[in-house]
Structures are given as C-alpha cells and as structure tokens.
Amino acid sequence: MKLYDTKRRKIVEIIAQTPGVLKIYACGPTVYRDAHVGNMRTFLLTDLIKRLAQYQGLKVELIQNITDVGHMADDAGLGGVDEGQADTEDRILVQAGKESIDALTIARKYEESFHKDLALLNIQPATQYPRASESIELMIELIAKLIAKNHAYVSQDGSVLFDAKSFPTYGQISGNKLDELKPGYRFVGKEDSNKKFHADWALWKKSSESRTQLTWQTPWGVGYPGWHIECSAMSLKFLGNKIDIHTGGIDLRFPHHEDERAQSNAASETEVVNYWIHGEHLLFEGRKMSKSSGNVLLVSDVVQKNLDPLAIRLSLMEHRYRSQMDLTWNSINASHKTLNRLREKMQIWSNKEGKIDENYLKQFESALDEDLDTNKGLQILRTLEKDESVSDGNKYQTILKFDEILGLNLTAKPENKKEIILTKEIETLLAQREIARNEKNWQKSDEIRDQLAQLGVGVKDSNNGQEVTPL
Ligand code: AMP
Ligand code: ZN
After folding, report:
1. Mean pLDDT calculated for residue range 316-326
2. Phi and psi (nearest 5°) for 320?
3. How many distinct helices (H) and strands (E) make up the chain?
4. 163: closest CA among 196, 116, 127?
5. How far away, in angstroms, is 412 Cα from ligand 2 center?
6. Which of 74, 110, 248, 310 could potentially form a cystine with 252 if both were Cys, beta carbons 3.0 to 4.6 Å apart?
7. Strand ordering across the sheet containing 21-26
8. What number does the ligand 1 atom closest to the CA of 283 have?
9. CA of 250 to the centre of ligand 2 (A)
10. What is the H or E stretch that residue 63 is in?
C-alpha cells in the first residue's frame, strides 16, 4: 500500500521491515473525557491501515498507548500548551478535581468508554494498550540512557530536560527549525531559566508539593513524566527500534512527534520510525471539533438518536484521511440510510449463487492501495450496486470482500426488518386464503387478509403466490 509520509513529504510505498509483519504505533487517547468523533477519525485511520495490511496478508502488531498522566492542558480552555504548566494542569488531575474522584479512577472510567466507542465503530482492537502510568520504570530507564548519552540534563529545579541542540536532525517531521523556534511560540510565556536553550523540553518534571497524585520517585526526585517521553518509552518497549508506521492526528506532528522522534532516535542511535502518517482534523457543522469550543460530537450522541454508529464510520470514509472534513447531522443521517439500503440488498443477494467480480475487486483494491482513497472505494461500491451487468450473487460476494476493509457490517440485519414468526395460526390462515383465492372467493380472501393484518402480517399477491411482509 501507499501512504503519505509526513517526514518524506510524499506518497511512498509502505514496506514492512520485518518480513510479513507490519509494526504500527498509534498515539492513543488522553483519558480525561470521552473521545469525540474527531479523535475517532484518527483512530479509524489506523484501523484502515491495519485492515488493509491484514487483507494483503501481513500480520499487524499494533500498539496504542493510553495517556493517563503527563498530558498538560491546552485545548481544555485552561491556557498554555504542553510545557511549563503548573502541576495541577495535568488533564487527568483537572478532571479528577472536577468530578471529585481520584485521578486513576477518572482515567479508567474514560479508558472503558474509549474501548466501547472503538467497538461501536468496528475498530479492531490493538495488540496491546499499555498505560503511561504503568510504564514509568521504562521512562526512567530511557531518561537515564539519554542523560548518559549527553542528550539530556538535570535542570536547576530538578526536572530532566532534553537537550534539543544535541539532536541535529530535529524538525524533519514538521519542517520546524530549532533556530526559528522563538521563545513564546511553543514554549509558553517567558524564557525558562532552567533550560540551557529555549527549545529544550521536559522528559521528567519535578513535582510541586501541592501535587499529591500521579507522582513517582526517581533518581532525580519526585515527579511525573512529560507526555512525549511516554510514547518513546512504550513504542520502543513493545515494538523495538524498527517501527514501520506511526500514526496520529495532524496536531501531533509538532511538538509531540518531533520530540518523540528525537528521544527515540537519540537513545537507539537509529531512525526508529520509518513512516509518519497523520490524519487531518475533523470539523463538525463547520467548526473545529474540540472540547474548549464546545463543539463536540460523541459516538454516544449518535447512538442516542437511534442511528447506527457505523453511519459515523461510513461518513468519515466518504473523505480521504488527508483532507479536512466537515461532518454534519445530515451526512450522518444519509449514511444511516445508505447502510440500511445496502444491508437490505445484501440480505436479498445472499440467497443467490455467485463469485467475486475480479474487475470490481481490482478497482477497489487499487483505490485503497493508492493512499487510502476510501472515497473512491465507496464510489466503486455504489457503481457495483447499480451495475445490471453483474449478477446479484456476484455483487454479494464482491461487496463482502470490500467489507473486510470497510468494516461496515454489511451483512448485518437491516433496520425494521422484523421477522415474521410463522405461527400455526398464521400458517392456517395463509393456507385458507390460498384455497379461497383458488376458488376465486375474493370476499373470503379479503376477510382473511384483514385477520392476518390484525396479527401484524401483510400479504401481497404475486406470480409466486402470497408474499408476507411485516406490518
Ligand atoms: P487526545 O485524546 O487529545 O490525546 O487525542 C487523541 C487523538 O485524536 C490524537 O491523535 C489527536 O491528534 C486526534 N485529534 C484530536 N482532535 C481531532 C480532530 N478534531 N480531528 C481528528 N483528530 C483529532
Ligand atoms: Zn503519542
């Protein structure tokens, strides 16, 4: 498959470094609130890559972390970006304060919702979901290694900082150059006297006395990890130093991924991640989807409206991952109807003999291989649906194959397709009506039809005899 690699700035052929195995690391959720559909768009990107790789016969090792400490407030309307914050601005701690429960209870609660939402969107589970709070030892080891290799230093206040200038290729993912990074741009507010250079960032932060939760003892005192070191530590531990693909939303390009790359490469003395794949952001009803702007759509909001959550998945796939897209209630409603229509047809077609239409399958596969063009893939599906030159049985088999990647559960029962349970009473009435019709006793036949209607059974007369439908 081909994907757009942010670092190389072009579409490249993805080649697994370990034969037969594709290793993917995906930045996971910060579990201080329910993930919104924007977050889910990024998680769906990883799922599509995973499904496509599996479809092509690769085994996928996917690690997705759970950030339950160290991610500082930025879009929660609390000011600042992710550096130089007061202790209490750890997102999990802020939420724990609001809900008056302890931090890890908050984290586990939202972690559980995250897994539920993934399942509702048919996103296949990762191989493992390591938690940051349970990987502290790994981070301490990694930080010690970076200090030993002169890539990090202990600052005056007892934090540990990465020495940005010690890593000459800093900036290759985002295109940001160290020299051009002015204090105050990303490095909140005033220059920090603890830093040798204003672009240095914290690997480990010394904790203030007011912080009573989510702190750990280290050789450098009591503190807590920086967000970026978490992903370096967990990715190196679970996938080693030859990772094929790293995914995340476009906002993570800088500083999160840039800093992660510097840390992982400096510690391993090799280019750890081969391809950096980023998904563009999702808007909702024309505005940025974020908690701070109050413009958030949750998977549960869609479920509450009795809409199929896979309508979200379908709507998201109408756009390629690399273009910004605006999701609307109209598009979710339309996708809900489309899903139902396709499922109804699949149910009818499933009774017919058939085989895969290789021509359509090839078109579909090349659309997805070519930088995950899901929009084109769905257009091919619609053309096939209407193509009268392809038999119903062949449509069924071919669309079944498409669905391995699309993940739309197209063989699920369509909505409102109540099944008629043919009780003895109904069967007898149908048999009596059949006799009445053969005898051309239309009055009796109509009377029996009314009786059947009372039982919720509709009858239509066709060349094949009586056809029953639920009323
Ligand atoms: P967070 O839970 O904030 O750590 O974010 C989880 C993932 O969602 C990250 O990869 C973000 O880049 C991504 N993300 C955040 N907002 C959006 C959005 N509006 N559209 C798409 N992805 C997003
Ligand atoms: Zn990350």
Report:
1. 97
2. -75, 150
3. 14, 16
4. 196
5. 35
6. 248
7. 59-64, 21-26, 243-249, 273-279
8. 19
9. 12
10. strand 59-64
Which atom of ligand 1 is nearest to 248's Cα? 10
Residue 83 has pLDDT above 60, yes or no: no
Centre of ligand 2 to C-alpha 252, Å, is 8
pTM of the model: 0.86
Is the pLDDT reported for residue 348 higher than 50?
A: yes
**What is the Cα–Cα distance from 193 to 163, expressed in whole angstroms?**
14
Residue 230: nearest ligand to its CA?
Answer: 2
> Which residues, other chains included, contact 15 with Cβ-Cβ below 8 Å and sequence gap of 6+?
244
Contact 222, 101 (CB under 8 A): no
Query: Is residue 263 within 8 Å of 146, Cβ to Cβ?
Result: yes
Q: How far is the CA of 160 from the centre of ligand 2 (A)?
A: 19
What is the structure's pLDDT at 192? 67
CB 172 within 8 A of CB 180: no
pLDDT tens digits, 180-203: 776 655 544 445 678 899 889 999
Helix (H/G/I), strand (E/B), else coil: 93: helix
Contacts of 39 (CB under 8 A, 6+ apart): 29, 249
Q: Token pair 């109804």 is at which residue?
A: 344
Percent of the chain past pLDDT 90, that is, above it, reads 77
Choose the residue to mutate in 75, 251, 312, 325 for probing ligand 1, maximizing ligand atoms within 8 Å of C-beta.
251
The residue written with tokens 């549960």 in the block is: 300
In angstroms, rounded to a whole number, what is the distance separating the alpha carbons of residues 47 and 404? 11
Q: Which alpha helices (H) appear in 170-251, and where do they start and end?
A: 227-239
Q: What lines the ligand 1 site, CB under 6 Å?
A: 27, 29-30, 38-39, 41-42, 67, 248-249, 251-252, 279, 281-282, 289
Indicate if the pLDDT at residue 439 is higher than 90: yes
Ligand 1 atom nearest 29 alpha carbon = 2
Query: Which among 132, 103, 133 has a CA at the least distance from the CA of 213?
Result: 103
Q: Please report, for residues 82, 118, 388, 418, the alpha-carbon distance to residue 32 in angstroms, rounded to integers and kept in the order given.
A: 15, 16, 51, 40
| Residue located via tokens 């940051």 | 132
* Interstrand relation of 160-162 and 201-206 (parallel, antiparallel or unpaired): antiparallel
Q: For residue 38, report the distance from its CA to the centre of ligand 1, in Å.
A: 6
Integer Cα distance of 440 and 118 in angstroms: 58
Two tokens at 90?
């750890």
Contact by Cβ (8 Å): 262, 162:
yes
Q: Is 434 exposed, middle or buried (0-12, 13-18, 19+ CB in 10 A)?
A: middle
